[in-house]
Amino acid sequence: MAEASDLLAGTGEGRLRKLERRGLYYLLLNLLGLGLVTLGLVELVYPQTLESVIPFRLKLDYLAILIFDFLGIVLISDLLMLSYRHTLRKARTELVNELARHDAATKLTLVDPVTGTFDRRYLDEIIPRETNRADRRESTLSFIKFSLEGFEGVDSRLGDQASDRILKETAQLLKKSFRPTDIIVRYGANEFMVMMPETAKHGALTAVRRLLTKVDEWNRKKTVPGFELELSVGVADYTKGKDVRDTLVALDTRVQMYRDKESPGA
Questions:
Q1: Which residues constitute the domain of residue 177?
Q2: 170-193 b/e with 16+ CB inside 10 Å = b?
Q3: Structure pTM?
């Protein structure tokens, strides 16, 4: 993907350089025409001025020719400029489309094939970007980690298809419960993480409650017979001045604390 990105950048840069050179040619053409008509006007208004510079006088016939030449140059320049603007719009559209295709292709390589959410590798890209943005805006970035309880034995009890369906259904519940701007990642075999930009901890907890309500509805429908969905939840937030690694450690600790609290005999 890095090679594709470099190739794309090089292609776009080459096109833009060609367009810049073409724009410079048109500018020089206009300046030439402007110089010609200025020369003619100076001769017409101040006929004695150019004698010390140019060893001959321009006659009115020459002035007329210069004016017509200038008008011709302006006309040609305008036509070329229209072509230039059309080429520029086309190049810009192609460049935007190439960037969009490249971005989509890059994201596809970072998507979990079972759930359709991003996989854990995507965190390496998105965490620095989102923390930098939170620092610039001095906003809060919340992390939520979900663990599917009792999922480890599903394959042996219900089969591979059932386990894949449970993961897909969980991902759909997450997508319905969180905003389109929130980032959902399959963090492990039975774990998901959600990043919520510009969201404080109380906002993240509101989203968690919304998800748990949908989980209860899903369980009542008995979508996967023989399995009831239960989630362990950990919530932590990042603000400017913190180390995001400490936030992620706190996230794991809180999920474990929740498990310990909810486990039998605790």
A1: 118-262
A2: bbebbeebbeeebbbbbbeebbbb
A3: 0.60
